[in-house]
Amino acid sequence: MGKKIKLGILGGGNNSLIGVLHRVASSMFDKFELVGGVFNTDFNESIKFAEDIGINTGRVYKSLDEFIEKENNLPEEERVKVVSVLTPNFLHFPMAKQLLENGFHVICEKPLTTTLEEAKILKETSDKTGKVFAVTYTYTGYPMVRQMREMITSGKLGNIQKIDVQYYQGWINPIIHDKEQRNSIWRLDPEKSGISCCLGDIGTHAYDMIEYVTGMEVKKILADLNYLYKDNEMDIDGTVLLRMDNQVKGVLRASQIATGEENNFTVKIYGDKAGLKWEQENPNYLYLLEENKPLQVLKPGHAYNSEFSLSGTKLPPGHPEGIFDSMGNIYHGVAKAILGEDGFDGEYPTITDGLRGMNFIEKAVESHKKGNVWISIDN
């Protein structure tokens, strides 16, 4: 086996859930080696974290500037090649741009940036440098989501005629009703999170999923958002009507005040021949619905699945795979791109997907503020 791609991480230290997810995912397929980064704004905490996970503290830096300077002074075969940006939203743009301009490939958490204009600049920078840039819309890595995409592409559903995507959580419900709490978390601070909380955090996952599995682009949206309190500047719930190509219509529903819900992300696509339904909380089941036929349940690892689905299946049938595996498949796709290896279309979400996600967020907020009117999504 060849040498592993050296990986750096910005953020994701201490008890960060997203940090654990990325570290485990990067270790799958034996393509990456995590060698250092800036894990915390507090250098001492960053060092302690590196010691806890067994990283050489000599590759832990006080700032991004120091990281770039010292890594680029190392011999080519030793330096970090790709960096995962796992910081709060407002840091995505300046960090990713600086990394690209200094020769690093980038894996960035979503949303890509806090504004559409920043996303456009980042896309131009990425195109100019030619570096691989992935945006971690994690759920696209699930084998049965990839199976869904392949079945739709092959025409199994016929002409698409209805799209219904729901992403419901309840985590913010106990926070939003307390004035002190809702004014203290970064996700409800537009300076740190951008102009949207709910759509920016989970609605953008749903939006990307629609375009990913159908291969169609959303053309127009009409949004009705919920803020609950006048002193809260950020949406915490919303419904968005969609108009796609070929007169296809749909609805996207996202909420962080769906009391008792955990991570209820459900994708339903209906054609004139059949329908498909997938639920993130039960990701190993893809339901095929056809007129006058029994409900069919497709599961990962079986020969009836597509080659693309099987390429992301690591275990024999009956052994559940989950979100770590999904993110691992995305990292695997990034590794193939960096190494110039052949792969499948759609193995990792690109910066273009991130740009369209920011376009969706801004247009949805605009639609709501203008009185719930139809707004076009620019290409």
Question: Can you put this structure into words, describing what you see?
Answer:
This protein has 379 residues and is an alpha/beta fold. The protein has a domain at 152-316 and 360-369: Dihydrodipicolinate Reductase, domain 2 (2-Layer Sandwich), CATH 3.30.360. 36% of the residues lie in helices and 21% in strands. The strands form two sheets. It has a nine-stranded mixed beta sheet with strand order 13-12-11-10-6-9-8-7-14. A five-stranded parallel beta sheet has the order 2-1-3-4-5, sandwiched between helices. Strand 3, helix 4 and strand 4 form a beta-alpha-beta unit. The longest helix has 19 residues, at 351-369. The model has no long low-confidence stretch (mean pLDDT 95). Residues 6-137 form the Gfo/Idh/MocA-like oxidoreductase N-terminal domain. It comes from Zunongwangia endophytica. Residues 145-276 form the GFO/IDH/MocA-like oxidoreductase domain. This is Gfo/Idh/MocA family protein. InterPro entries: Gfo/Idh/MocA-like_OxRdtase_N, Gfo/Idh/MocA_oxidoreduct, GFO_IDH_MocA-like_dom, NAD(P)-bd_dom_sf.
Mind sketching the topology for me?
Elements: E1 5-11, H1 17-27, E2 32-38, H2 43-53, H3 64-72, E3 82-86, H4 92-101, E4 105-108, H5 116-129, E5 133-135, H6 143-153, E6 160-168, H7 173-176, H8 179-182, H9 190-193, H10 198-214, E7 220-226, E8 237-243, E9 249-255, E10 264-271, E11 274-279, E12 286-290, E13 296-298, H11 307-311, H12 323-339, H13 351-369, E14 375-376
Parallel strand pairs: 1-2, 1-3, 3-4, 4-5, 6-9
Antiparallel strand pairs: 6-10, 7-8, 7-14, 8-9, 10-11, 11-12, 12-13
Helix pairs in contact: 1-12, 4-5, 5-13, 10-13
Organism: Zunongwangia endophytica
Pfam family, one: GFO_IDH_MocA
Protein name: Gfo/Idh/MocA family protein
